[in-house]
Amino acid sequence: MKNIYAIGIGLIGGSLAIDIKNNNPDIIIHGISRKDATLNKALELGLIDKKATLEDLKHADLVIVSIPVDATVKLLPTILDKIPDTALVVDAGSTKADICRAVENHPKRRNFLAMHPIAGTEHSGPTAAISGLFKGKTNIVCEVEKTTFKLQEKALKLFTDIGMRIRYMNPEEHDKHIAYVSHLSHISAFMLGKTVIDKEKNERDIFDMAGSGFASTVRLAKSSPEMWTPIFKQNKANVVETLEEYIANLTTFKELMKADDYEAIFKEMESTNYIKEILKGIH
Ligand code: NAP
To answer: Would you say the CB of residue 125 lies under 6 angstroms from ligand 1?
Structure first.
């Protein structure tokens, strides 16, 4: 593998570029993005070796697509049109069903591997890219059987070499589960942030009084709306279902408070402490 084209070189594309280049110094990373300023930044930061355009994809051995999921759905068929028959295309999108559907009948479907690296931060753009982001994290691979075996093997080596473990799921299953553990967490952080901002008009008060509990709980509210709006749109049915369950739990909590039922409140929290067991081994 010699020529890698990174389409989107923000947090995910840039971090993948760093780790893959560290493991394979002879590889040339070509960057493709909407804005020239983003490409220049990526060059300056050493995330990419060269700037490129979609027309250059005819030289690609591997294409990594890390752009918002609506842009991925639109661009993926064109990317497959332009690559040589031997190249592999992977995407890093946080939703999988619409993306897989967008290329299900494409003549080069077997050159594509759908994946979702479960790693990230609340920061975005090339300056957010960091090395080691994927070490010890899970990469969810969907519809692996639809990718040529040789290309599957290439991808698996590349991603296990940067420290990822691989899990297989079908796209619908992925989107259902990820709505709970990722999409709901982001909505919850955004609305927690909104609630505090609406009430506490004085930014200084928020800053002085907010402890690290608030900061860590609301952290995800710093995430990019440009990336998250299309995720919620593509995963609407699952996200709405998780929100209904979450709102029901919040309502129950409110009713217990109103009824002064602190024994029940204690029990609600005590049973939820089980999350400690579930999350053992993360961090
Ligand atoms: P990011 O830091 O905001 O970077 C996005 C990149 O996509 C930028 O280089 C941007 O370049 C480009 N871009 C934006 N809109 C575009 C469009 N309409 N067409 C073409 N390029 C466009 O985002 P990210 O966090 O790396 O996320 C990238 C992908 O990874 C998304 O699909 C996301 O769902 C997925 N993902 C994210 C996380 C996470 O925690 N952030 C985790 C796993 C997977 P310009 O500046 O040139 O527009």
So the answer is: yes
Instruction: Check: CB of residue 81 under 8 Å from CB of residue 55.
Output: no
pLDDT band of residue 202 (cuts 50, 70, 90) is: confident
| Ligand 1 pocket mutation, candidates 227, 228, 235, criterion most atoms within 8 A of CB | 227
* Rounded distance from Cα 66 to ligand 1 centre (Å): 5
Say how far apart CA 214 and CA 111 lie, in whole Å: 45
If you take atom 41 of ligand 1, which residue's CA is the nearest one? 120
Q: What is the pLDDT of residues 51-61, one digit of tens each?
A: 999 999 999 99
Distance, in Å, from the CA atom of 138 to the CA atom of 145, rounded to the nearest integer, reads: 19
Residue range 148-164: average pLDDT? Answer: 97
Q: Is the CB of 67 under 6 A from ligand 1?
A: yes
- What is the spatial distance between Cα 106 and Cα 39, in angstroms, rounded to a whole number? 29
Tracing tokens 């919040």 back to the chain, one arrives at: 250
- CB 133 less than 6 A from any atom of ligand 1: no
Q: Identify the pLDDT of residue 1.
A: 86
Give me ligand 1 centre to Cα 33, in Å.
10
pLDDT at position 283 is 57
